[in-house]
Amino acid sequence: MSKSFDPVFDNLRKRGHRITPQREVILQIFRKLPHGIHLSADELYEKMNELGYNVSLATAYRTLKLLTSFGLLRELTFAEGHKHYELKEDSMPHQHIICVNCNSTLEFEDHFLEELGQKIGVKHNFQVIDSQFKIFGLCPSCQNQD
Ligand SMILES: [Zn+2]
Ligand SMILES: [Zn+2]
Question: Ligand nearest 37 Cα, by number?
Answer without folding.
Answer: 1
